[in-house]
Automatic annotation (TrEMBL):
Annotated organism of origin: Cinchona calisaya
Record Pfam families: HALZ, Homeodomain
Location of the region described as Disordered in the Swiss-Prot/TrEMBL record: 18-37, 51-118
GO CC terms of this entry: nucleus
Name assigned to this protein: Homeobox domain-containing protein
Major subcellular location class: nucleus
Length: 275
DNA sequence: ACTGCCAGCTGATTTACATCA
DNA sequence: CTTGATGTAAATCAGCTGGCA
């Protein structure tokens, strides 16, 4: 039993890339289909044959829901007072933004250079969100620029700002998803550890039980009972101590050395309730 | 009620890399 | 094979805001 046997439990661990294909060619923008565009960045851990955590197949909710909660909890979170204030200031903001767009286009970030922070209005955010839900990547195959420009026009923003918004949105969605997945993996790890402990204990008990049922002479360690076919004598004895089973014996006779084998526990080869 | 600090959010920039014509 | 254009991810910066002592 090699390391691989222990460590190839049938777990699939993927980060940000759909699990099956294209793992070696993570990005291929121009070949993206609508389908490939729509996947949410994710880190997955699942057992082969298990559909319990197949994010690719039934993934949509987490990232979007997360974001909705996220944005609801951050940008628009603080109750009616804030909302009222936002509503009041929204129109002002729109005017501010649009005038900024015009002046920005004049001199592309130049002038006084006091990097004023643009704040998207609720309406702008909503429209961007809507668009993001449809395709988290502006489709580069055909209408990237057009899409961008249409959106920008609709939002009264510069195309570059739309582009940046999408970039940031993707990055932060991914980050969020990674955090969620990390939590999940931690829980998985804890569960597996617990189960491992439980099974180890069970094994010990079974061993003890088996030992108790054997006649006395059979209760000697297996290695000490190995019989040499040539001299027809039972080998071993005098091992003394846990690790000594093979040591002394094997010095005298090669056959005896292989008698005892460590019992590795592999939580993944047997059905597990962990995940 | 006001103030200063801090953490989190988010728009923007920079850099590196991949892909394609 | 090389090169320029284009698009994206990742890292980072920096302004803004809300919560809290």
């Amino acid at each position: 039993m090699g390391f691989d046997d222990i460590c190839s439990p049938g777990l699939v661990l993927g980060l940000g890339i759909p699990s099956t294909e294209d793992n070696h060619k993570p990005r291929k923008p121009s070949l993206k289909t609508e389908q490939s565009i729509n996947f949410e960045p994710s880190l997955t851990l699942s057992l082969f044959g298990s559909e319990a955590f197949d994010k690719k197949s039934d993934a949509p909710p987490p990232a979007d829901d997360l974001h909705r909660q996220d944005s609801a909890a951050s940008s628009f979170s603080n109750g009616s007072v804030k909302r009222e204030r936002e509503l009041l200031s929204e129109e002002v903001e729109i005017e501010r933004n649009s005038s900024r767009v015009i002046s920005d286009e004049d001199e592309d970030g130049g002038g006084s250079n006091s990097r004023k922070k643009l704040r998207l209005t609720k309406a702008q955010s909503a429209l961007l969100e809507e668009s993001f839900k449809q395709h988290s990547t502006l489709n580069p195959l055909s209408i990237s620029q057009k899409q961008k420009q249409d959106l920008a026009r609709e939002l009264n923003l510069r195309p570059r700002q739309v582009e940046v918004w999408f970039q940031n949105r993707r990055a932060r969605t991914k980050l969020k998803q990674t955090e969620v997945d990390c939590e999940f993996l931690k829980k998985c790890c804890e569960t597996l550890t617990d189960e491992n402990r439980r099974l180890q204990k069970e094994l010990q008990e079974l061993k003890a039980l088996k030992l108790a049922q054997q006649p006395l002479y059979m209760q000697l360690p297996a290695a000490t009972l190995t019989m040499c076919p040539s001299c027809e004598r039972v080998g071993g004895g005098g091992g003394g101590g846990g690790g000594g089973v093979g040591e002394n014996a094997s010095k005298n006779h090669p056959l005896i050395a292989m008698a005892s084998k460590p019992h590795f526990f592999n939580p993944f080869t047997s059905p597990s309730a962990a995940c």
